[in-house]
Amino acid sequence: MLKVKLISSTPSPEKLVAAAARFCYSPADCDTIMDGLTAEKTEEYINMLVEIGHESPVEHASFTFAIEGVSRSLLAQITRHRIASFSVQSQRYVNENHFSYVVPPDIKDSPEAMELYQKTMDDIQKSYDLIGDILFEKHLKELGGDGIKGNRTKARKMANEDARFVLPNACETKIMMTMNVRSLYNFFRLRCCNRAQWEIRELAWQMLELCRKQAPALFSKAGPSCLYGPCSEGKMSCGKMEEVRKRGRSDT
């Protein structure tokens, strides 16, 4: 099951962004840049940045998320957002002898599809285990057997390295991800959109909710383009702007 937690962020992110904006629009210097940045003044600066679309100051603040219960398919999508840092659970060091997997809603809603899906996952598990055991014995023998300390661990890692090739896109993984606010704006604009794939879309909405709680002014206008303006998808629009707006504005 998808779970995302905001585990860290730049201290006082909104005040930091306001200070960056102040450097751009006032004669303040290094010694005075943080002076007088009350909550009200901070919000004024951030609202100004949002209004005029000046996004470079928001790059100074970043947010780190711990994510679990997502598929390797999602991993392939999320790492396309290149201005970010990722740490991912290794399939070399973590044995998948009882791997968990994500079930798409449409498959879950179809008993026939679900039965075949579960059978496929069970078959993959058996193949993974068998290939892993065969390779483990092979590598253990090549390393000199049980008599040498650490050989079993080395052999298992070597076996996992190749056995993982049979694991499906559905296999669950864990990710730690850090993005600055400007990258998050882009992420939310693309991935909260109804045209985004269902799994990464749900992740994006949950992340946006966490960001709004931590820094409400910074993320007041974050989300898909149709949330506060026209849809940017043109003829590819989902046609459900009111539905998207209802969800997006209920989180604020």
Could you please describe the fold and organization of this structure?
It is a single chain. With 252 residues, the chain is of the alpha+beta class. The chain folds into 2 domains: 3-88 and 172-223, Gyrase A, domain 2 (2-Layer Sandwich); 105-166. Helices cover 48% and strands 12% of the residues. It has 9 helices and 4 strands. The chain has helices spanning 13-25, 39-52, 72-78, 105-108, 111-143, 151-163, 181-191, 198-214, 241-250; strands at 3-9, 62-71, 85-88, 172-180. The protein has a 4-stranded antiparallel sheet with strand order 1-2-4-3.
**Share of helical residues:** 40-55%
* DSSP strand tally: 4
Q: How much of the residues is beta strand, in percent?
A: 5-15%
Assigned CATH class of the largest domain: Alpha Beta
SS summary, helix count: 9
What's the order of the H and E elements? EHHEHEHHHEHHH
Gross CATH architecture of the largest domain: 2-Layer Sandwich
Query: Strand order of the main beta sheet, please?
Result: 1-2-4-3
CATH domain topology of the largest domain = Gyrase A, domain 2
Quickly count the domains.
2
Mean pLDDT over the residues:
93
Question: Which outline best applies?
Answer: flat
Largest sheet: 4 strands, antiparallel
Low-confidence stretches: none
Distance between the termini: 24 Å
| Radius of gyration over C-alpha positions, nearest whole angstrom | 23 Å
| Classification by helices and strands | alpha+beta
